[in-house]
Design a protein that fits this description.
Blueprint: H1 12-25, H2 35-44, H3 56-84, H4 92-118, H5 131-156, H6 163-185, H7 194-199
Helix pairs in contact: 3-4, 3-5, 4-5, 5-6
Length: 204
């Protein structure tokens, strides 16, 4: 049908939405799920047919998050054995290490990586966003989170008191890492066309 042919096959859900909207309006595909379906397809599968790789920093965040997930699962499994078979409730240090590995190490790293991938590009002339700053945030968060988890696991086994200073420093470094990331990403948290549709009375 004229105006509804895609040189590159768009994802099925975009095609379905576009066809539905086009059928209701009787107009060629355009707008949010029309021509953008083609653009989205080209972003994923260029003319060569090869999938565009995810950016390095995005892969770092996501894969590191998966590593932290398995670390948290191992700690959680040990806590379960200690409670159900050993008959002793896990101490607060082990609980904290488990929570940080899963909730911060996995969940937050996944969120940061996907946000880095999907958020709009910084506007022209922006001086805040720099990939080097995202690098700094990644390494700060990764080292700080790993050190905090290891330190809390060690403290749960009656480690030396000076480990408390290490754990505290790692916690402060985590705050710094998040501050660097979100300060850098602030200009990318912006509307791309949505404010125009809102001005017309659309709600979504």
């Amino acid at each position: 049908m004229e105006g509804r042919d895609f040189p590159h096959s768009a994802p099925s859900y975009l095609e379905a939405i576009a066809a539905f909207r086009g059928g209701l309006s009787g107009k060629p595909l355009q707008g949010l799920y029309g021509n953008r379906a083609l653009e989205a397809r080209r972003a994923v599968l260029p003319d060569s047919g090869h999938v565009v790789p995810v950016h390095t920093n995005v892969r770092r965040f996501i894969k590191t998050g998966i590593v932290f997930l398995f670390a948290g699962l191992l700690i959680g499994a040990w806590m379960l054995v200690e409670r159900e078979i050993g008959g002793s409730w896990p101490g607060p240090y082990l609980v904290s290490a488990h929570a940080h590995a899963v909730q911060l190490g996995f969940v937050m790293f996944l969120i940061l990586g996907v946000a880095l991938w999907l958020f709009p590009k910084p506007p022209e002339g922006d001086t805040r966003y720099r990939p080097e700053r995202i690098d700094a945030a990644y390494w700060t968060l990764t080292v700080a989170t790993a050190v905090r988890i290891a330190g809390e696991v060690a403290r749960s086994a009656a480690g030396p008191e000076w480990l408390g200073w290490i754990v505290t420093a790692a916690g402060v470094a985590q705050v710094i890492g998040f501050a660097i990331y979100f300060w850098t990403m602030w200009s990318r948290i912006r509307p791309v066309g949505s404010h125009l549709r809102e001005a017309k009375g659309q709600r979504f």
